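thought: fold this chain, then report.
action: predict
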Amino acid sequence: MMATRRRTYSSGSDASDRFISINERPVDDISLEFFYKPHTITLLIVIISGLIYFAFTRDENESIQSNIQSGLVAMVFFFLIISIMAFPNGPFTRPHPAIWRIVFGLSILYMLLLLFIVFQDYRTVRSMFEWLFPDLTNFTIDMDKGEWGEKCDDLSFARLWESIDFFCFAHFTGWIMKTLLIRHYGILWTISVMWEITEIAFSHLLPNFIECWWDAFILDVLLCNGFGIWCGMQICHLMEMRYFNWESIKDIQTTTGKLKRAVLQFTPESWTAMRWLDPTCTYMRFLAVSQLVIFWQLSELNTFFIKHIFQMPPSHPLVFIRIFLLGAMSAPTIRQYYSYVTDPRCKRVGTQCWVYGLCMCIESLICIKFGADIFQHTQIRNIIAWVLVQAAGSLMCLYLCVTHHRLQRRRVIKHQDDSLDEDTEPDSHITSYIQSLPRKTVTLSTPEEDDDSDDEDEGPAKVQRRRKNPQLRRSNRLDH
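observation:
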């Protein structure tokens, strides 16, 4: 008989419990049980029926391209169905765990696609993109030329207003989403400033990195990045102060209330204030947060190199598909990495974080392999300086954050001590007043000590205590 294999965890293991909470979090409060009960048999019947229908009704003589695309779509669809049934929930359960299982399934497919591309040549990969998107056939990267770094001395309000376009709005909303994920002013501003340094270091390889000083520091850092960070942190503060009390939709009587509750299902179940750096953080935690900053730069850099190497316009759907996919992957990834860094009971990273890190490394490998002609013009001094500045800048900014937290903590402790001293001040006045009063000495003496005390000079008043004589009391009982 074949033994059944089950996923087991040791009972009482705190590390396993912490890993389950970030990798396969269960749904605590279920309002509608229908959406959380397994319907595997029903799903199997439906997908088999649909497969039979399309297999015999679809025109296979249309074109070989259409047949291959339909087959690929069917493969992805069935893989996502398997993802819903088999993959873990991750750290989130809203709006439904199936959504985050699909995200994890898409990340697996993206990782497999990147692995396939690594073993191809440039012409094959380019042909794949042209086959999926025929509009890329006649496009070259030279067509995407703009006024990069030109007329930098012409600084006026009209020039700034002309520079604001759709990408500025996308930049602004992107930083709001980044803030909702990281929720830390110091780390966010570090990433923002370090990215501008990254653009300067790689501007000799990527022409669209060439910017005027006012474009980099006024439009990017202050307006798009800074205002996006501020708006995102305001949303975080509102979510932290919110009281989450979820009422079952079955208990709501009005139709408006039911619709409102259904919409709120797409909001977080709870909100955790992230404390990446605290006054007592260890050096390993400090380095782990610095690693997050560097990985974030690498992820952003891959976006521009892939677009430039495989010659895609910035507004192409393939570019936005990748950005949206990585954004969906980043939400559970950062939550799992945060738990791994800050919680000593969590001994390993979550699966989504592991897959995301592998995808970033494979993307960098693809950029280096297929962008050999571009990297031949690399200025080694710029790259070495970029690495050193990234490391030193990240460590310095994070060190200042830790120092700020320590000073803030000391102020809080000092304020608490001062308030405690004010509360205890009346008691200290009463104690000092009692100690200043004249005291009267009271001495307890025995009858044998009284004879000696008569010969002494007058002194403080004494209180005599008679001692019971057990022999006298015994003789009195015998006389009676």
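thought: worth noting. Residues 18 and 343 are 9 Å apart (CA to CA).
final: tokens above.
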